Amino acid sequence: MTAPVPAHESPPAPPAPSDHTSHALLLDLDGVLLDTRPVMQMAWRKVQELHGVNLPFHDYERHLGREFGDIMQRLGVTDAETVRRTHEAESVAAAHLAQEFTGIIEMLHAFVAADWRLGVVTSKHVDRTAPLLARLGCPFATARTSAGAGRTKPAPDPLLLALVDLGVDPAAAVYVGDMAVDQESAARAGVAYTRTGWGYGQLTAPAPKTTVSPEELLRLLLPAKQLVEGSKV
Ligand SMILES: [Mg+2]
Question: Does residue 1 lie in a domain region?
Answer without folding.
Answer: no
